[in-house]
Specification:
single chain, 381 residues, mainly alpha, elongated
């Protein structure tokens, strides 16, 4: 790992880590891969100490595998993909796993250094895949754009195509893992380095590398965006701290009006005790005369019976009601002041015969009822 001031360094191996030298590269990779899978499947909070400790343990293990890969010189700059054995293909993922783990480290104090370290490992992994021609043309174009989508017209199509390819590759990888499991149950568990050239193993590792390429491009985009966000927040904090900094006091040792919260404090700080001395004190501080200064407010002294006077003059109810509404209406009705006043209906004597007008009303009612009945019958029909 490069030495960076803001980059978290991997802790030095302790006495328990000395046993790593006795492990083969296959065993070390298997141990690192187990820790990596624990990190990916962990349900712990990303800000918890347990989660970050697990990520650091996985980083230590995969860094040890990287050192062994460089020591054994498993890959050279002038070799092609067909020159790499199926057993060694999986070690190409070491840089991607390291970058992914650094991106998963969520300690805020070293977050910026973790992102930079992650981007460095991811770019190294993608450059190696580009040399081995494991990246498609669309992947190379996205890598040149630092993982950002293309133009507006092609971004949606590229995103859909990438998701389809990832879904297809994940399905193929699951099928190959099932085949590998059946072969292991049939032939017994064999160390990876002892396996012969197997087409299933080679296809599995190639699919894992292509999936890692797609995830690495996404990490490039998100990592660069997060770096910009962190830089913006740091600049905002710097500007805010400068704005909050108090103004410097004058060098003559006297108090400035900018540092005084009230007029009384200003007078007390400069030894001014009387009103007539304000002009003299202002002149000593090279400030405006008292005629232009803000007047000192005096406390309000109200009269003893001010509250009673206000209540008597403003809150005394006038024209209090002397009767209820029904009584008022009855008086108005008797006086004939109500509009459209109708005389009360006369009570008809039971013995008095009905008048002609009542007979005509009854005839009208019968005719009206007959018309209504005819309409109902017609509606029912």
């Amino acid at each position: 790992l490069r030495s960076m001031a803001s980059t978290p360094s991997v802790p030095k191996p302790d006495a328990a880590d000395k046993t790593k030298s006795s492990l083969s590269i296959s065993e070390a990779y298997h141990k690192a891969n187990v820790l990596y899978q624990k990190v990916k499947e962990s349900t712990l909070s990303s800000n918890s100490t347990e989660y970050n400790d697990l990520v650091k343990d996985a980083i230590r293990a995969i860094v040890q595998v990287e050192k062994m890969t460089r020591t054994l010189a498993l890959f050279s700059d002038n070799e092609e993909l067909r020159d790499i054995s199926s057993v060694n293909l999986k070690y190409l993922l070491c840089d991607f796993i390291t970058g992914d783990l650094f991106m998963s480290l969520q300690e805020q104090k070293i977050r910026e250094g973790c992102i930079k370290e992650s981007l460095a490992h991811l770019k190294k992994f993608l450059e190696k895949c580009k040399e081995l021609k494991l990246m498609s043309e669309s992947d190379i174009a996205m890598y040149k754009r630092e993982g950002k989508p293309g133009s507006i017209t092609t971004a949606r199509a590229e995103k859909i195509e990438r998701h389809k390819n990832m879904r297809r590759m994940k399905g193929e990888l699951q099928e190959l893992l099932k085949i590998e499991k059946l072969m292991a149950e049939k032939n017994g568990v064999v160390e990876d380095d002892d396996l012969e050239e197997d087409d299933v193993q080679r296809r599995k590792h190639l699919l894992m590398i292509k999936l890692a390429i797609s995830e690495g491009l996404d990490h490039l985009r998100f990592g660069n965006d997060e770096l910009k966000m962190l830089e913006f927040m740091r600049s905002r904090k710097g500007s805010a701290s400068q704005e909050r900094a108090p103004p410097k006091k004058p060098s003559n040792g006297k108090s400035s009006i900018l540092h005084i919260n009230s007029a009384e404090e200003f007078l007390r700080a400069n030894g001014i005790t009387r009103k007539k001395d304000i002009t003299q004190g202002m002149k000593q501080l090279n400030m405006a005369p008292a005629s232009h200064a803000r007047k000192i407010a005096t406390p309000y002294e109200g009269k003893a019976n001010a509250r009673t006077e206000v209540l008597n003059t403003m809150y005394v109810p006038r024209n209090m009601p002397t009767m209820d509404m029904d009584t008022f209406l009855e008086l108005e009705r008797k006086a004939g002041n109500l509009p459209m006043q109708m005389p009360p209906p006369k009570k008809q004597d039971l013995d008095e015969p009905e008048s002609e007008d009542s007979h005509s009303d009854n005839d009208n009612d019968e005719a009206h009822n007959a018309r209504q009945k005819k309409r109902r019958d017609w509606d029912n029909w």
